[in-house]
Amino acid sequence: MSKELTKRADNYSEWYNELVVKSQLADHSAVRGCMVIKPYGYALWENMRDQLDKMFKDTGHVNAYFPLFVPKSLFEAEETNAEGFAKECAVVTHYRLKADPNNKGKLIVDPDAKLEEELVVRPTSEAIIWNTYKGWIQSYRDLPLLINQWANVVRWEMRTRLFLRTAEFLWQEGHTAHATKEEAVEETVKMVNVYADFVEQYMAVPVIKGAKTASERFAGAEDTYCIEALMQDGKALQAGTSHFLGQNFAKAFDVKFSDKNNKLEYVWATSWGVSTRLIGALIMAHSDDQGLVMPPKIAPIQIVIVPIYKGEESKPVIDEKAQSIMNALKLLGVRVKYDDSDNARPGWKFAEYELKGVPIRVAIGMRDLENNNVEVARRDTKEKQTISVDGIVDYLKNLLNEIQQNIFDRALAFRNENITEVNTWDEFVKVLDEKAGFISAHWDGTAETEEKIKELTKATIRCIPLNNKQENGICVLSGNPSTERVLFARAY
């Protein structure tokens, strides 16, 4: 397969699709709308998952696992949630196949094996989890209940793109129960902050924390908080959400507890989640025309060492030095690979690891070793330097931190340069078409205006930033009074 990628400036969408496949993160599958996450992509997801899992546990959460199937009657118990997901549901109606009597070797659905009640393949797990919580919660002593689940979900998408939108995807979903509204709201905000910390500190993607408008909230939520990131093509991507569910699910599933005064009360709920969509965000925020650019903290391979042999006699000398450097790096917890395979020339390997976004490449040849040096190339700036073998391990460890910070700073500068304040409709349309990015503009707070702007421009309100400053103005479309700016963008 050719390693040449379509240029971002020529066709950003095509560049993305090619990069995911050519860098061996994922592949299309025989199941329409579903993907195969390849080992390199899954190693990336594991690094992200493991760090997030630690952050969840550090904030008092524990993991559990709930069924993939949700009885339809449970799913429809919370009406707003059910209606919000109804069009995306895959539904199991039968439990058996049988041989087709009219077509040898083929199978048909057994009409006698119809389920008494249809099962929804979970698009989200509130229904099955809250039905379970009813048996777990009796007293204030059982609260708070802070549970997370790592799982797969199915949302029947008609237009799919690897990682960004697939019919089945991997995610985590937190579901918590609290004795008071204040505790639940505090949890909702805490988790959007956990997401923001993870995405910025580990993925090196700057985000804006905000609240969704009523029309953009999660179905069944009273408030939805989100983190919004900006991709290199000027489109926004919602990178994570945290929902304050009020008592909606507690009432739908009759989940009550006895408070300290022995009075029965409905519990207060939250849910929050991020998915493999984050990998799409990572790709589009950092990568370039040569391939992926991986932040070191979550890169599957942080450093690759490539030998450049000159005759058979050079092999043991180079191998010994490479193994020594690799072992010292591993003791420091660095994910390092020594590629001494003989199936490709060094130049091909260089291009392969550039495509895969490995943060640091170390090349070791005999001429270098004779001078006690190695060549170090960094992926983010493409700079190459000759570095002394003495102290090389500490140098490389520090360089990983420098690269992590540089990738974030570069993305932050891009994001900040692409937030534009506008005050008129003409400015709004001009910026959206010529520059894109986030547009900070006044909105009159009505769903009608929000919908009209979306209809006219395909731009949506991405969020009302948290800690937004109050500022009197007029709505860019309606001219009606407004007290704060919100962020608009076209989005994935």
Short synopsis of the structure:
The protein is an alpha+beta fold. It starts with 11 loop residues before the first helix and ends with a strand.
Walk me through the structure.
This protein is of the alpha+beta class. It has 3 domains: 12-70 and 122-286, BirA Bifunctional Protein, domain 2, CATH 3.30.930.10; 303-414, Anticodon-binding domain (Rossmann fold, 3-Layer(aba) Sandwich); 419-489, C-terminal domain of ProRS (Translation Initiation Factor IF3), CATH 3.30.110. It has 14 helices and 27 strands. The strands form 7 sheets. An 11-stranded mixed β-sheet has the order 3-9-10-16-13-12-11-24-27-23-22. A 5-stranded mixed β-sheet has the order 18-17-19-20-21, with helices on both faces. Helix 2 (39-58) crosses helix 6. The longest helix has 26 residues, at 392-417.
Secondary structure category: alpha+beta
Strand content: 25-35%
The CATH superfamily of the largest domain bears the name Bira Bifunctional Protein, Domain 2
**Shape, per Cα inertia axes:** globular
Report the span from N to C terminus: 28 Å
CATH architectural type of the largest domain: 2-Layer Sandwich
Q: What is the β-strand count?
A: 27
